[in-house]
Amino acid sequence: MKNFLFFLFLITFLKCVPSKRNEAINAYTQLKKTNMLPLLNFVIDTRGINDSGQLIVRSIRYFEVSGGSYLIYPKIDSIDIIRFCKKQNLTLPQTDTIINILLTHQAKTKATTINSNPKLGEFVYYSFENDDKVLVYCPDAHKIYNSYWKDYIKKGEKLDDYWYIIIRTEAQ
User: Fold this and answer.
1) For 44-88, how does the pLDDT look when each residue is reduced to its tens digit (9 = 90+)?
2) Which terminus of the chain has fewer CB atoms gathered within 10 Å of its CB, N or C?
């Protein structure tokens, strides 16, 4: 009888513990029909959690193919934002709209990092705090320039034509 009660307690306890191990799959479900091209070349990094339980975005940086980068959030360095606007032929309100779209995208996916660096190739990867998987959007595998990432993405499970889910390694 003691064993039966113990197992009943254990099963009940395990059902009540929320699982965050499916964060990558949850993000994929929300993103699979999203136009991802506007996210190319942006890196969104988070740090900590606010009072409402949402991740706090620490920075958003835009990377150029030529190697330059611009910190566009937070607006600490107005010179970076002005340079970004000029390079992209945008106004400050248009840049604010882009920042808001990126912040909304991060909140929707709950990813701790969203990374798309053109030096590595044309893909976006998402990592999550409580998931051992990363989610990768890769519209064209021939446009991955970094050999590590080319091999890494090939090891992943292909979810559809553009999306992969991959076991996270320490190298990221």
Assistant:
1) 999 988 888 889 999 999 999 888 899 999 876 678 888 999 999
2) N
Q: Say how far residue 82 (Cα) sits from the centre of its chain.
A: 25
The encoded tokens of residue 37 equal 């091209």
Strand intervals (E) in the chain: 42-49, 55-63, 69-73, 113-115, 124-127, 133-137, 157-158, 163-167
Among 97, 103, 143, which Cα is nearest to 124's?
A: 143
Q: What is the pLDDT of residues 86-128, one digit of tens each?
A: 999 999 999 999 999 999 999 999 999 999 999 999 999 999 9
Its pTM stands at 0.80
Among residues 132, 123, 105, the alpha carbon closest in space to that of 163 is found at: 123
Three-class secondary structure of residue 134 per DSSP? strand
